[in-house]
Amino acid sequence: MNIIMKELTVNSADNKTILNNFNLNIKSGEIHVIMGPNGTGKSTLSKTILGSSEYKVKKGDILVNNTSIINMPTDERARLGIFLANQSPISIEGVSNSEFLRTALTNITGQKIGIYQFMKEMNSCIKDLEMNQSMMHRAINQDFSGGERKKNEILQMKILKPKFIILDELDSGLDVDSLKIVCKNINKYKKEHQETSILMITHYPRILEYINPDYVHVMINGHIVKSGKKDLAFEIEKKGYEVINTMEEASSYE
Ligand code: ADP
Ligand code: MG
After folding, report:
1. To test the ligand 1 pocket, which listed residue (10, 11, 14, 16) has its Cβ within 8 A of the most ligand atoms?
2. Which of 18, 38, 49, 168 to mutate to test the pocket of ligand 1 (most atoms within 8 A of CB)?
3. Does the pTM exceed 0.90?
4. If you average pLDDT over residues 56-82, what whole number do you get?
5. What percentage of the chain's residues is helix, strand, coil (to nearest 5)?
6. What residue numbers bound the domain in which 69 lies?
């Protein structure tokens, strides 16, 4: 899936500008990484792509395969194949994981899936992720640990089969072994669905040992200030964002 974000300016409900002239072009099959200090608008970007009502798009556009999605409700965006693995997945009381996923899958594909076939598929995905089988019938994320919640997001990904995947700080909350398992599943999915594009938000280059990005971007104050390859992530880990901050100030006086 092709995604173009063009001069995107987004305010919060209380009219604070969070994304400020944000530009990014993700081509079909590419993996892009965004790094950036806390509070720079990374999660706002991911929620804006899904059409969260928390935010107001003031300017610019988001094009998916050359069609604007800016006025589409969230469910329509999901039907196009856009998927967000949340930074902090919420729990939902009274709805089981399997009920939720089967309903979501039916809504996205427009086809009713037989319960036996669905359970078989879900079981095998749970095994792939080395999750506990009881997760299937438990309420969504209820009493799940931080790491289990993150795995549950990837379980949703595997079942819903998106074409554009946003991973918002997937690595925070996952221990080393779980991170490896989750990344193995993402890589396998990517291999089987080559046209799928990924936007990965992270603080730690460690995840890039398992998932190989095409581009790494640094986001500061609501837009991208520097783009590069994998090395950029390691450079930032060594030197911090300070260096890039100075560069941004310098370039604004050009
Ligand atoms: P990041 O994910 O890069 O750490 P966020 O996108 O979560 O940053 O937040 C960017 C800034 O916008 C922060 O200062 C945050 O407090 C503010 N912000 C985010 N969402 C809202 C909201 N719904 N209402 C008001 N302010 C918000
Ligand atoms: Mg965030």
Report:
1. 16
2. 18
3. yes
4. 97
5. 40, 30, 30
6. 3-88+162-243
